[in-house]
Amino acid sequence: RSYPAEGARANKVSFSNDGRLLAMGDKAGHVTVADRAGVVLWRFQCASEVCSLAWSARDELLAVGCHRHFEVWSFKTRSRVHRGMVNRYVLSLSWSSNDQLAFTGDNGVGLWDPASGTELSGIRLERTHEVNWSANGRLAIGMEDGRIIVIDGEAREVLTGQTGYVKSVSWGPKDRRLASAASDGTVRIWDPRTVESLATLSGIKDGEVQWIGVDVLACASSEKVRLVRISTEEEIASWSKADAVDYSLSFSPSEGALAVNRDDGFYVLDVTEFVDRPRAARSLPLEDRSEEH
């Protein structure tokens, strides 16, 4: 299935946690929410380009990172419930399982609590680039110097080995593994408990990563989206568009679908067979459950 961009370059995409909704943002600040049948349910306008998107744990709230601020919108009331100001692009947002929002802020990672509607004391770090909560409440933070910091309550572990900024981090099934993509062109697989690097994949510069199975990782760069079997470092599937500048990824486990963007719009790829029954490498198909939109 494909969703054309609304007049501006497609930029970010995010599945809701239950897989029923797909949020799409562009460079002009437009956000569109559609259901899995392709029906547009909601559109709204942010003050600047969409740099990041994230659904809350119960899919009641949608957070949008923009230039110098972030916005939180209610899907139920179709209204904005919060706007927080920062002095930089909000490149990353992530909700915890108890609906606490982490975002890249001025001096590290900011935290916002929807219950009180207030911003909490954040985590002071210099030059953060990416944040991602695990299901069990650990927070992975990608830094511009190549480090990944994992915070678990009062404990703090530092993963080192990549150079350049860490653009993307993704927790694996049951939070036992962590994947990170950095501007040095590598993707690392980590054991966050032992701080050990378990594998290194190369040739994925400035990419994004999304775990979609116990041993399968989706990796995206400016060239293409590829599925990689981690244990063998084998590319088992790929998808590309020649004029794509950058890709954003979002995976829905319940639907077996991987959402990606390119300049002209958003695409949903059917990856079920590769997650459950990997086969020989070939191009990924668009979903064929209905006609294109």
The number of helical segments is: 1
Low-confidence stretches: 277-281, 288-293
Mean pLDDT: 88
Tally of DSSP β-strands: 29
**Share in β-strands:** over 45%
Largest sheet, in brief, is: 5 strands, mixed
User: Biggest sheet: strands side by side, in what order?
Assistant: 22-23-24-25-29
Instruction: Please tell me what the overall shape is.
Output: globular
**SSE pattern, N- to C-terminal:** EEEEEEEEEEEEEEEEEEEEEEEEEEEEHE
Commentary on this structure:
The protein is an all-beta fold. It contains one helix and 29 strands. The chain is globular. The termini are close together. Residues 277-281 and 288-293 have low confidence and may be disordered.
How is this fold's topology laid out?
Blueprint (H helix, E strand, L loop, with lengths): L1 E3 L5 E6 L5 E6 L3 E6 L4 E6 L6 E4 L5 E5 L1 E8 L4 E11 L3 E3 L5 E5 L2 E6 L4 E7 L3 E6 L5 E5 L4 E5 L2 E5 L6 E6 L6 E5 L3 E6 L4 E7 L5 E4 L4 E5 L4 E5 L4 E6 L9 E4 L4 E6 L2 E6 L1 H5 L5 E2 L10
Parallel strand pairs: 25-29
Antiparallel strand pairs: 1-28, 2-3, 3-4, 4-5, 6-7, 7-8, 8-9, 10-11, 11-12, 12-13, 14-15, 15-16, 16-17, 18-19, 19-20, 20-21, 22-23, 23-24, 24-25, 26-27, 27-28
